[in-house]
Design goal:
- The chain contains 13 helices and no strands.
- It is mostly helical and about 220 residues long.
- The protein is globular, with a radius of gyration of 17 Å.
């Protein structure tokens, strides 16, 4: 049983995503291009995939990844070691999460966090971002403020697994409303979210934008 239940107000989500501070009104090359390149090179060249993930992280937090002891070869090694696991999750949506996945998610999140950065302040956020960019339909993104806003007690591996389960549960409960939200989103932001011929936004990315605006930026 999941300790945290996430509820979604779909009218509020639309309002927040349509606000003047919305991230969806502008083309997000720092996210869309890595997504496109990882999709293109996943079955061709894992070195390119890890390099793209590195640039994605540097674009998110330049100081931490350029001067914080980050070693790109460690990320490359992690991607190669976990290739089969990642490949399996790339083909799934979070609503398919089952009991057998929990141990794997926890292990991947923990090992990725420690190989990316030494400082705990950023390493778990970076791990979630990296997992998401590699398997965007399965792994969600969060940070400390989002976790706090959703009533989680931290962003460590145990809480991340609970976060995944809570999102799976709400997306299953609200399946019809989720489909309506996706259709609204793709229509509303077609000019900025289809720059590569297809939408880069899974429902997890849409919710990431919403959670970030609401809990991190304080948009209501």
């Amino acid at each position: 049983m999941c300790e945290i239940t996430i509820t979604l107000n779909f009218e509020e989500i639309k309002k927040v995503l349509s606000s003047s501070q919305s991230l969806s009104k502008d083309v997000d090359v720092e996210y869309d291009l890595p997504r496109k390149l990882i999709d293109e090179y996943w079955d061709k060249n894992l070195r390119t995939v890890s390099d793209v993930a590195t640039l994605f992280l540097i674009a998110w937090n330049n100081a931490a990844f350029r001067y914080g002891g980050f070693k790109p070869d460690k990320l490359k090694g992690w991607v190669e070691e976990n290739r089969d696991r990642i490949d399996g999750f790339r083909k799934r949506e979070i609503t398919s999460l089952n009991e057998n996945d929990k141990k794997c998610i926890k292990e991947m999140y923990e090992t990725l966090a420690t190989c990316i950065l030494k400082t705990k302040k950023r390493q778990f956020i970076a791990a979630a971002k990296t997992l998401h960019i590699l398997a965007p339909s399965f792994f969600p993104v969060w940070d400390n403020k989002v976790a706090e806003g959703l009533r989680f007690r931290g962003i460590d591996a145990d809480n991340y697994v609970k976060f995944c389960v809570a999102l799976k549960d709400v997306l299953e409960r609200e399946r019809e409303n989720v489909e309506k939200l996706k259709k609204w989103y793709y229509k509303e932001f077609e000019s900025t979210r289809f720059i590569y011929g297809y939408s880069q936004r899974t429902i997890l990315k849409i919710l990431d934008e919403y959670f970030y605006l609401k809990f991190t930026r304080g948009v209501v």
